[in-house]
Recover the amino acids of this structure.
């Protein structure tokens, strides 16, 4: 039988490659944690720290006039009373100057309305029907963060428990190793994205990590099942049987990953912007998850 | 043969039922899809947990206030034991709601301590001054403010601080103004003694415009016992220089004297008016708060999300594009790789979509953006099961088995690993649903429901459809199931 995937030969390369990925991810996480300007392992978004996020479109034709953000901020400083907000405001133009996106510390609804009125006065008219405003108090943010971390830990525990019951110890350990490998890498990628592009993670990121966990374990379970089945029935060499099983399930695993990636890709391309990073995290997780299920987890099982 | 037909009819019946449900019970759209505001109210309790009774009490007060505000189609629900979520669909400004809901609205009636008249007069004057300063400052903010003007306000503020012998700690001017006003309010309140009459003794509240000017006044109607208490209180201070203060949340909103003509009976009739320079809007807000009663525990608005209607409908279209294009591309991929089998999976996918949506309208599940992404993601996962089965069927065919046999054993052998594989995803969904926020729950619900339905559609539906297909001779050629390079040589 001709193998497409030579995992016996490439065991070292596979494990080496994963080690490099893990180290890079950890580097990002540590860099982010110990750097004075980030101080957290990942760039926490408004969901977790509280604040005010506002997106609103300007009413203008095909092209909106270019307006330097500094000028807007200067004007805002002149007419706003709330100095605390004005000194911490972040303002951006997007979509050919049409969309204004603003971040400030937490504001009351009244203060937020005042801010919008002020902005309307400077670069209006604004289309209020296109408004997207979120105000999150710092207390709630902290609570959400605790909530998300708890959810992650509880479900990781539940999944670990399930695998340990389902497989014997050796398989369970390797399936879990592969799972943590996937989660650390996705987390690391977003740490780096936070450092380089100031991408923030919100509660949907935690959801994507959980979904990745479920999905990745699922993939590994299918391949390990195949290996167990073949080890029982076939009399061939142990390593050969594992390689055979991997190749037998290769098509199935890549195909299911592709069919899951296709809808995610459609969300990235056509979906609402608020789902962009969420879908990207999920897609990355599924890619890394398939890799670890097909190549990494079975490599652990190989005997030297 | 008969059993297969029963399944086929059952599936057709379910499909008809789904279409019927979807037409008659339209899907509920979340605020991110239809536009509107969502406020999260946090109950504040210094010590211990908020009990169920307390939550219920806060909920009913807020509910009454919301109803009296006259917002249409609002939805109030409790969340996680100490939070309430209020949804205001459409272009309704959350500002008024937040002002009315956020206040405790604790109404007290107090009588002035003896010998405090001079003290009160000074404080009343200072209160007037500080209110004027705040007014001027706010109007300055509307127009461009000028530095000289600010200087005047600052100087005035300093004078007031000296008179009060109080120094404010806030960093910005506006904060200082508010802080000093609060200080004056407390000082005034302290000059009055508590009575046993409070907002609990009200049975109704109303408002009307004063006859002499454009200001509004708020009318209070007491219960029987409340009316008696009010008469008793007014009787004791009638004709003296002690005033009666009406205090709302620690701030005195009216101080009035009671004429000597009431010295015998007190003010009877069981009603009172508060006339404190209310604007129409303020009077209405106070009316709503008093009608709803005071909150047993204070609340704080911790989150406000507002989505414009236009953005909401854009979100719907974007999600539709994403869902349909996802479905089409997955369909193309499946037909390309699995021929007839792929076509069968496309049919089960369409069924899957209908069943899902029908279940959303039945349960009902409110569709939100994360919810839709859960649904779209579950499309991919629903096909997973089909792929597992089809790969088995291909292997069986490759080994030279007959079509019927291959199909039967393909479904049978893939069964366990499909159920198994879905368990981990369901576990994650379950945890997310239990612990997640409202936002996250939507995703967990649709993904979870999706995974469960996909077990039915990918196992039963595709098997039934496939068996129906192979009753026709022309669908029984093996090359319709295997691509050329996968055929045995």
């Amino acid at each position: 039988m001709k193998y497409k995937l030579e995992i016996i030969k490439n065991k070292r390369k596979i494990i080496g490659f994963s080690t490099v990925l893990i180290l890079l991810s950890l580097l990002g996480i540590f860099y982010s944690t110990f750097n004075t300007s980030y101080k957290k392992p990942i760039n926490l978004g408004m969901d977790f720290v509280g604040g005010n996020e506002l997106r609103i479109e300007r009413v203008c034709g095909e092209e909106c006039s270019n307006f330097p953000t500094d000028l807007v901020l200067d004007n805002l400083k002149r007419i706003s009373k709330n100095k605390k907000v004005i000194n911490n405001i972040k303002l951006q133009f997007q979509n050919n100057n049409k969309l204004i996106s603003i971040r400030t510390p937490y504001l009351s609804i009244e203060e937020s309305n005042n801010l919008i009125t002020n902005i309307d006065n400077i670069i209006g008219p604004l289309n209020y029907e296109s408004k997207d405003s979120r105000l999150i108090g710092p207390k709630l943010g902290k609570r959400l963060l605790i909530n998300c971390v708890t959810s992650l830990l509880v479900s990781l525990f539940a999944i670990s428990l399930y695998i340990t019951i389902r497989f014997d110890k050796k398989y369970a350990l390797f399936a879990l190793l592969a799972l943590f490998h996937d989660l650390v890498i996705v987390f690391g990628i977003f740490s780096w994205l936070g450092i380089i592009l100031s991408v923030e993670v919100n509660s949907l990121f935690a959801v994507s990590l959980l979904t990745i966990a479920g999905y990745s374990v699922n993939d590994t379970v299918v391949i390990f099942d195949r290996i167990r089945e073949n080890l029982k029935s076939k009399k061939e060499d142990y390593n050969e049987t594992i390689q055979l099983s991997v190749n037998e399930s290769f098509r199935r695993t890549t195909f299911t990953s592709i069919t899951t990636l296709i809808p995610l890709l459609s969300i990235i391309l056509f979906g609402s912007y608020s789902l962009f990073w969420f879908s990207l995290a999920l897609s990355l997780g599924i890619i890394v998850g398939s890799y670890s299920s097909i190549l990494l987890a079975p490599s652990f099982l190989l005997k030297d | 043969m008969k059993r297969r037909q029963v399944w086929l009819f059952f599936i057709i019946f379910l499909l008809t039922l789904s279409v019927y449900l979807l037409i008659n019970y339209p899907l509920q759209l979340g605020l991110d899809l239809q536009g509107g505001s969502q406020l999260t109210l946090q109950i504040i309790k210094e010590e211990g947990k908020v009990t169920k009774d307390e939550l219920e009490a806060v909920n009913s007060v807020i509910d009454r206030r919301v109803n009296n505000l006259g917002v249409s189609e609002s939805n109030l629900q409790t969340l996680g034991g100490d939070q309430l979520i209020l949804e205001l669909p459409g272009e309704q400004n959350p500002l008024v709601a937040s002002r009315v809901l956020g206040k405790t609205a604790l109404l007290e009636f107090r009588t002035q301590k003896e010998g405090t008249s001079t003290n009160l007069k000074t404080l009343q004057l200072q209160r007037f001054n500080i209110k004027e300063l705040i007014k001027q400052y706010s109007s300055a903010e509307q127009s461009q403010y000028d530095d000289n003007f600010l200087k005047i306000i600052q100087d005035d503020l300093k004078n007031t601080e000296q008179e009060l012998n109080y120094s404010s700690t806030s960093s910005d001017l506006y904060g200082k103004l508010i802080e000093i006003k609060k200080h004056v309010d407390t000082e005034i309140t302290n000059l009055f003694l508590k009575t046993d009459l409070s907002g609990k003794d009200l049975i109704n509240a109303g408002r009307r415009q004063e006859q002499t000017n454009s200001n509004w006044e708020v009318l209070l109607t007491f219960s029987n016992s409340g009316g008696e208490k009010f008469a008793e209180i007014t009787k004791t201070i009638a004709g003296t220089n002690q005033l009666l203060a009406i205090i709302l949340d620690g701030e005195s909103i009216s101080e009035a004297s009671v004429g000597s003509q009431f010295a015998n009976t007190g003010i009877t009739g069981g009603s009172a008016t508060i006339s404190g320079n209310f604007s129409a809007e303020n009077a209405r807000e106070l009316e709503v708060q008093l009608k709803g009663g005071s909150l047993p525990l204070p609340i704080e608005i911790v989150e406000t999300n507002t989505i414009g209607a236009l953005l909401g409908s854009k979100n719907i279209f974007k999600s539709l594009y994403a869902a349909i294009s996802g479905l089409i591309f997955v369909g193309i991929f499946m037909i390309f790789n699995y021929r007839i089998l792929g076509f069968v999976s496309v049919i089960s996918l369409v069924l899957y979509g209908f069943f899902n949506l029908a279940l959303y309208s039945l349960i009902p599940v409110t569709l939100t953006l994360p919810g839709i992404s859960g649904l779209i993601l579950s499309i991919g996962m629903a096909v997973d099961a089909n792929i597992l089965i089809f790969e088995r069927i291909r292997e069986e065919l490759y080994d030279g088995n007959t079509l019927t046999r291959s199909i039967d054993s393909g479904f049978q052998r893939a069964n366990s690993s499909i159920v198994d594989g879905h368990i981990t995803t369901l576990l994650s969904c379950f945890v997310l649903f239990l612990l997640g926020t409202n936002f996250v729950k939507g995703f967990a619900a649709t993904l979870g429901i999706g995974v469960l339905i996909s077990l039915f559609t990918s196992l039963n539906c595709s098997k039934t459809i496939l068996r129906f297909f192979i009753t026709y001779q022309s669908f029984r050629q093996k090359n319709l199931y295997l691509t050329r390079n996968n055929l045995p040589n």
Notes: Chain A touches chain B through 75 residues (CB under 8 Å). The radius of gyration of chain A is 24 Å.
